[in-house]
User: What shape does this take?
Amino acid sequence: MAADKRVSDLLRENGLKATKGRVEMLGLFLKAGRPLGQMQIMEMLGLKLDRASVYRTLNAFTEAGIIHMAYVNGRHRVYELPDKCSGRNCHPHFSCRSCGMTACLEGFQVRYKGNLGKGFVAERQKVLIEGLCPDCKEK
Ligand SMILES: [Zn+2]
Ligand SMILES: [Zn+2]
Assistant: This one.
């Protein structure tokens, strides 16, 4: 499949071997076009990969710079492709508390007033807005 070829090329360009599991997982990100959490990935893969493999693969992708962590919510980590931002300068995200769907809020500015204080250095800002997505709001 052409899509699989694109995924394997992307893996190789970033110094990773294109194993079946990696191709499968990266394909999910490309298809989804939005941030995905560990649990969502597990669900989408069905029983194709166990939890440890998903975890390992996400770490390998993160180290290679193919994805970055959009945010952490408790123990739930959500990752995304860096096509809209960098890990250092990420846009705010919306997370649905009911279904766990995440949306990127591009062009959405959060301003803070005041300063951090002497000696503090800001490295990145992660903003997460929680609520209900349109599908869950209807129910
Ligand atoms: Zn929802
Ligand atoms: Zn995002």
In short: The chain has one domain: 2-138.
